[in-house]
Write a structure and sequence with these properties.
The chain has 266 residues and is of the alpha/beta class. The chain contains seven helices and seven strands. It has one domain: NAD(P)-binding Rossmann-like Domain (Rossmann fold, 3-Layer(aba) Sandwich), CATH 3.40.50.720. It has a seven-stranded parallel beta sheet with strand order 3-2-1-4-5-6-7, with helices on both faces. The radius of gyration is 18 Å and the shape is globular. The structure holds NADP nicotinamide-adenine-dinucleotide phosphate and D-gluconic acid (GCO). NADP nicotinamide-adenine-dinucleotide phosphate binds next to helix 1 and strand 2. The site of D-gluconic acid has 14 residues, from loops.
């Protein structure tokens, strides 16, 4: 066998949710480079169109669908369309996500629910929609994009941490319930990654200096830098490939070492 043949994704169809840009887009590019056919969704047609243009520019013939992943009927309709128009989904990446940075006692219950809806309920809805066909196929890969906040809290991200902590346990439960059918469900826990979602944490100050949080994260990360979305591509390909068929219910932290590090003495 050619060396590391089982890292290839040739002939596989991968659905990456919320992948017009950011981490989802980077993971899709990596999976495409490994041979997968890419399917993605976004909430609005304009974002899907922008995403399709970005994929085309990257030389990827992706297929895009408009779908709000919190809407179960819309998700079921999208999955049925994908199965009819593209083919059965071998790999699901539950990537779509939002964050609201609000002190907990100032956060409205509706705002809390919105974060839980996208970051936790939606991975349940989309996984539930794709698992039946994976059962028929006798294989499947589900990758949930968790977070350092699956392990740690910090000020203002109560809803997000609760959702990502729940997503870690949903990952373990899907692995427990469907591992016997050759379906592997694992998580990727990115550290601090430079995407639109974290742009507010990296904004230059009025005097041109770095955002205090930016400096804090760089100091707290042994790698001494923010992650790039592309840093997640290899780990995602591994978890989507046959190379990880005996890996199940694990969260792979791709964080530059931040979770391992107590921090430099001031
Ligand atoms: P991002 O730049 O904000 O992109 C999020 C994507 O999700 C966007 O394409 C967004 O579409 C889509 N989305 C949001 N709500 C949706 C919904 N209801 N239905 C369908 N699509 C929806 O975020 P990112 O930094 O790439 O993060 C991607 C994932 O990684 C998220 O789950 C995030 O929690 C996680 N993560 C990020 C970091 C980080 O440091 N960046 C670290 C750890 C984990 P629209 O543009 O239309 O809103
Ligand atoms: C924040 C950040 C983090 C990152 C990521 C870290 O406000 O602390 O947005 O939540 O997005 O989840 O792993």
């Amino acid at each position: 066998m050619e060396k590391y043949e089982n890292f290839k994704l040739d002939g596989k169809i991968a659905l990456i949710t919320g992948a017009s840009y950011g981490i989802g887009f980077a993971i899709a590019k990596a999976m495409a480079a490994a041979g997968a056919k890419i399917v993605f969704n976004d909430i609005k047609q304009e974002f899907v169109d922008k995403g399709l243009a970005s994929y085309k520019e990257a030389g990827i013939d992706a297929t895009g669908y408009v779908c709000d992943v919190t809407n179960e009927d819309a998700v079921n309709e999208m999955v049925a369309k994908i199965e009819k128009e593209v083919g059965n989904i071998d790999i699901l990446v539950n990537n779509a996500g939002i964050i609201k940075r609000i002190p907990m006692i100032e956060m409205k219950a509706e705002e809390f629910r919105q974060v839980i809806d996208v970051d936790l309920n939606a991975p349940f809805i989309v996984s539930k929609a794709v698992i039946p066909t994976m059962l028929k196929m006798g294989h499947g890969k589900i990758i949930n994009i968790c977070s350092m906040m699956s392990e740690l809290g910090r000020e203002t991200v109560s809803a997000y941490a609760a959702a990502k902590g729940g997503l870690k346990m949903l990952t373990k439960n899907i692995a427990s319930e469907y591992g016997q059918y050759n379906i592997q469900c694992n998580g990727i826990g990115p550290g601090y990654i430079a995407t639109p979602q974290t742009a507010p944490l990296r904004e230059r100050q009025p005097d041109g200096s770095r955002h205090p949080f930016d400096s804090f994260i760089v100091a707290k990360t042994p790698a001494g830098r923010w992650g790039n979305a592309e840093d997640l591509g290899g780990p995602a390909v591994f978890l989507a490939s046959e190379a990880s068929d005996f890996v199940n219910g694990q969260i792979l932290y791709v964080d530059g070492g931040i979770l391992a590090y107590i921090g430099r003495q001031p």
